[in-house]
Write the structure tokens for this entry.
Amino acid sequence: MDTACVKEAAIYLHIPFCVRKCAYCDFLSAPAGDDARRRYTAALARQIRLVGESLSQRRGFDGGKLRVPSVFLGGGTPSLLSPSEAEQVFGALREAFAIAPDAEISMEMNPGTVTAEKLRAYRALGVSRVSLGLQSADDRLLAAIGRIHTYEDFGRTYDAVREAGFTNVSVDVMSSLPGQTLAMHERTLAEVIKRAPEHISSYSLILEEGTPLYEKRDQLTFPDEETEVAFDALTHEMLAAAGYRRYEVSNYAKPGYACRHNLRYWQGGDYLGFGIGAAGLFEAVRYRAVTDRETYCAELEKAAPDLRALIAERLPLSLNDRMEERMFLGLRCTEGISKARFAADFGTDYDRIYGKITGQLAAEGLLAVSGDNVRLTAFGMDVSNRVLAEFLLE
Ligand code: SF4
């Protein structure tokens, strides 16, 4: 092992472009032309190089590079990057960081946005995991939520991804969509299971203020609370029967295929964010980048960019913040929390901080405590937001 690489962090890259906005989406993404994409990619590559350089000059690194166990290209639609744009980004990454030889490198893709040539290029660059957004196998639902693709488009892209040699594929599905019935969701799950991806994420629609779907909410029929619970139950049941283990509130994987990058977030590990709006956590400081693309690109086009000007928020975490985060994020995972690790990381006894509330929630059947381990029960997972709120400290 290279002893200069004393520290490691995952990397998130934000690609803020989409063919068209989906009706429910409030992520930082927008349609843009080739020139805008090229300009952003160049800025992103420059930011990666500059941050890598500045980290390697710090004490402790001795000119070495930060070790990176996982990279996640999210968005937006990262699969809008042309092979040469992707090459630019990966070139910068490999120059600036010590990407682990077995790194998990995930890329989000939307059906219909890739060709066989693009997929081969991404794979040659090191992408090892593809995350495909399906949402539903029902074309009417896909149209109602403004997706750019049909179910058939998804099938073609899925097959192309497999043909390009990707052996770690995730598919996103959504429930609680307007007009969605249990039978529709069941069919979606059955179709996905038939294709046997290694990983499935299942999210409930959240109506975000300001989105077209939110504006139209009064003219639409959304599943009631009871049906939402039934959606969840159906998802667990069908995926468990097909050999997928739920390892986080919304994520299921075949053995050995849990997303390492996301597990790192939930376990409170360090990660660096690049691109507009990207969040990071490094050495107990949370930060978020500026969200304006022009500001971001213009700064990185200067002869000597000021990296601090790219950061919109910087929040050093207090001990209480870190303990709360450990609970909020750690309990989302079915593995739960280790009391011993909590004590080792925070220098304080778990039970002294959370013993009382843990006992109460366990008595209500929301938490399971066995020896060192504290985790949500299946019932606790269903109402996880309510349970997690109990771990806020004064
Ligand atoms: S593809 Fe994803 S990021 Fe783009 S608009 Fe749709 S939901 Fe948002």
Remarks:
- Residues 17 and 33 are 9 Å apart (CA to CA).
- The chain has a mean pLDDT of 94.
- Residues 10-265 form a domain with the TIM Barrel fold (CATH 3.20.20.70).
- Residues 18, 21-22, 25, 27, 29, 75-77, 110 surround iron/sulfur cluster (CB under 6 Å).
